[in-house]
Amino acid sequence: MTLSAKSTKRSLQLLLAVALALLLLAPIEEAHAQKAESDNVLPQAATSKYPVISWTTAGTCEWMIDENGLLTVRPQSGLESGVLESNYPASGSYSPWYSYKDKITSATIEPGVICKYPTDLFEYCSNMKEVDLSGLDISEATSLTRTFCGCKSLQNMRLR
User: Fold this and answer.
1) What sign has the CA pseudo-torsion 158, 153, 99, 91?
2) Per-residue DSSP letter, 84
């Protein structure tokens, strides 16, 4: 196994550990009822004509929040991949959308998004119920500290 493969495997293990910890915090009955209700339905990419936040650049990626609260992150138009960067320390968070955290109810990271610093990425997105991270490349990340800190409504997470 190469160093990069080991790093990717370790990153996914850490992310899975965070996801499991979050699931253990929710009451079991509530988790079962909501899983039956949603039955693996995860957010689709934003195609809104009326976004709450229009496409905004963050590094070589772009993000938007639609009227349903879906945060979509993708490489900039025309790019196969892009590096997601924040405006830390100016914002006080590594998350480019931190100022809009209360509007986010779900999130989708499209393929090709590279995030070297996922620290605080979804910090205090307290209304976010589901997230699809299957397009997120965190193979170069060294810490996942507070990635989901304060995400008290999170119920579903797709990693691959």
Assistant:
1) negative
2) B
pLDDT digits (tens, 9 = 90+) for 53-109: 899 999 999 999 999 999 999 999 999 999 998 755 555 566 889 889 999 999 999
Q: Please name the residue that has the structure tokens 């699931």.
A: 23
Give the neighbor-by-neighbor strand order of the sheet with 113-114. 82-83, 113-114, 136-137
Alpha carbons within 13 angstroms on the beta-carbon side of residue 107 total: 30
Query: Measured in Å, how far apart are the chain's first and last C-alpha atoms?
Result: 20
Contacts of 147 (CB under 8 A, 6+ apart): 15, 18, 118, 119, 120, 121, 122, 123
Residue 145 backbone dihedrals phi, psi, to 5 degrees: -50, 130
Burial class (CB in 10 A: 0-12, 13-18, 19+), 23: middle
CA angle 5, 7, 8 (to 5 degrees): 65
